User: Fold this.
Amino acid sequence: MMTSEFFTSWFLPGVWVTIQVTLFSAALAGVVAFVIGTLRTSRFWIVRFLSGTYFEIFRGTSALVLMFLFVFAIPLMFRWQFISPMVAGIVALGLTYGAYGSEVVRGSLAAVAPAQREAGIALSFTRMQRLRRIELPQAWPEMIPAFNNLLIELLKGTSLVSLVTVADMTFAGNLLRLATNESAPIYTLLLVLYFVFAFILTRGMRLLERQAKARIGQKPEKLGLLSGLRAKPSTDVVTGTGGVK
Amino acid sequence: MNWDWSVVDAFMPRFWDGVLVTLQALFWGCLIAFTLGLVWAVAQRSPQKWISWPVTAITEFIRNTPLLVQLFFLFYVVPEWGPSMSPLTTGVIGLGLHYSTYTSEVYRSGIDAVPVGQWEAATALSLPRGHTWRAVILPQAIRRVIPALGNYVVSMLKDSPIIFAIGALEMLGEARGFSNETFTIEAYVVVGVAFLVIAYPASLLLRALERRLVQ
Assistant:
């Protein structure tokens, strides 16, 4: 069904594009999540208000609509455009999923025992020192399960870039369908590939969680093969809310 | 900055058509997601391994693969053996099926939160299994999860523009069609704002509902 020529010239580069988009937008989302998330715990109401507004705006917009705005609307409106549709897609995904991530960071920071913060104040740590030395290291293991789910959502979201002309693996799959009219094998392959990627990401995050928990002296629980594909964190990253009580 | 209000006016009739399709997709998608999710959740708790295991595997697979590719699968592959459906119907089924795997988790946590004593009481009264579910467990479980389900309605709304990829003309699809015909971009901005205008009040409402139900 798949000619080897097509495979090497379109499909493999497509897989590589998907991996790149996932990694770059995850990095951007991580930065946004930590910056906005910590700002949302600020002492000053104006900082909390502005960072909260960012969260509400990006939680309220669809990543796909944002991508269309970036790729088609902004170049004509402001006579300025992203270097490529791929960069626009990465930025759209990073900003959207970063907003969801900020809720994870905020929630985990709020869950650190107040006595820890007070101990920091008693030792006259500055605000930054407290955050870096006391609060973040303890909140970090709590964040990982939620970040794991968010990363899978992001991976799934990368397929949207194919709709703004980025040649990722979904795009290559569509080209192949047009060329050969054989849709069953190609879409099955795509679904399996995305699932395998999600599985690999989960395993990686699980490893990270074990290390992070070991570092603060907690024992990680053991999970079965399929039972743990999705973690059960305190923050629901799909809806960006406190999750199910 | 290029901005022309007359273009916005010209887009309005098609915009409202798009809103109607989006809301239709959302309504039917939610209906499927909420019922199918409950079926998954109950099936996953079945004592028979041959029921619970395949259901778990299928829901995990659907939840961890992109909705967009699932829609392509439903739209291009399924008609090869099964019925061919209109883009909107396919979109509704895709959205509903995808989100049913999320709502099943919500139901599951709601069911887990029902105290064990309720199960034991049902056993002590020798209620049949179906009756236990219908009259004892689910009424208590579903009450708890209503706000969480509501949050998924907002998430579905934000994922609904994906169905334009298979040709269902919802808001984004109408905006794209209009913009391509007239070489303008205002329609995209209108749709972007429309999503915010619908999603933000909805999430405020849900937060209020959550606060009331938790008390």
Observations:
- Chain B touches chain A through 56 residues (CB under 8 Å).
- Residues 110 and 145 of chain B are 6 Å apart (CA to CA).
